[in-house]
Write a structure and sequence with these properties.
This protein is an alpha/beta fold and about 250 residues long. The protein has one domain: Rossmann fold (3-Layer(aba) Sandwich). The chain has helices at about 5-20, 20-30, 45-55, 70-85, 95-105, 115-135, 175-185; strands spanning about 35-40, 60-65, 90, 140, 160, 165-170. α2 crosses α3 (about 45-55), α3 (about 45-55) crosses α7 and α5 (about 95-105) packs antiparallel against α6 (about 115-135). The longest helix is centred in the middle third of the chain and has 19 residues, at about 115-135. The protein starts with a helix and ends in a 62-residue tail after the last helix. Residues about 1-5 have low confidence and may be disordered. It binds iron/sulfur cluster. Iron/sulfur cluster binds near residues 125, 126, 207 and 232. Iron/sulfur cluster binds near residues 111, 122, 125 and 204.
Length: about 250
């Protein structure tokens, strides 16, 4: 349970962060941390954060969840980004046994069957690997923005993640898509070519489609589900502590 004291500290921290540039935010957040981790999906926001981290907080570990179902373009971008910035992006892969159990039970594309099967796949390919990526971390940096979807409209700059026992920071929380694109342009940040083909938000290949004019940025994710709040669980409070029924052994 988050204490009232933590809430107060988070509010003060958010006010401090709001007044800073992106580089200052990252240096401030990572300063004095023993194990700061940035999880990148190689999306536009995450590419901006990678570029800014290299300059402002090079000690932060950069990791990606290599789910096994990523677009080829995303895989290529991991290598391209490493080469451009002279960094290593740690690939965290699903546990082989858990993945085999999931595939035996639901099939390789079982996520289309229903939301339970979909969440079970996200658990095995993303959530459980994320837990390993964040083991021992004291800071988790992510690229969430308030403008990405209605569901993310109140994303904070920083909050205590009680499930994982760390501070979670979203240094781009108040950036709009135009600011992100301007940074990419100005800094020559490598980006996924799929963005230019109508994919503002890119996840696993079978669960991502291009969006139509007027749709929100995340409308192409799990488009067959009706729930407007659909998320994979990586950024859902409480999801870390739960194993979906259909992912249980
Ligand atoms: S996004 Fe799709 S393929 Fe990827 S982990 Fe979730 S359900 Fe599985």
């Amino acid at each position: 349970m988050q204490s009232a004291d933590t809430n107060i500290r988070d509010r003060a921290l958010a006010a401090d962060l709001e007044a800073m540039s992106l580089g200052e935010r990252l240096a401030f957040l990572a300063g004095g941390r023993k194990n700061a981790v940035f999880t990148t999906s190689l999306g536009l926001e995450d590419q901006v954060l990678t570029a800014a981290l290299v300059a402002a907080a090079p000690g932060v570990r950069i990791v990606t969840l290599e789910t096994g179902r990523l677009f080829d373009e995303t895989i290529d971008l991991i290598e391209q980004t490493e080469a451009k910035y002279g960094i290593t992006i740690e690939r965290i892969r699903p546990d082989e046994q858990k993945l085999a159990d999931y595939v035996n039970r639901h099939g390789m594309n079982g996520f289309y069957e229903g939301i339970e099967a979909r969440k079970a796949c996200c658990f095995v390919r993303k959530l459980e690997p994320l837990a390993r990526a964040l083991e021992g971390a004291d800071l988790w940096i992510a690229g969430l923005r308030r403008g990405q979807s209605a569901n993310r409209s109140d994303v904070p700059f920083a909050e205590y993640d009680a499930d994982r026992g760390l501070l979670k920071a979203n240094p781009l929380a108040d950036w709009d898509i135009e600011a992100v694109q301007a940074y990419v342009e100005a800094e020559g940040v490598p980006v996924n070519p799929l963005h230019a083909r109508g994919y503002p938000s890119i996840g696993c290949e079978p669960c991502t489609r291009a969006i139509k004019p007027g749709e929100d940025e995340r409308a192409g994710r799990w488009w067959w589900e009706n729930d407007q709040k659909r998320e994979c669980g990586l950024h859902v409070v409480g999801a870390a502590a739960q194993t979906p029924i259909s992912a249980q052994p």
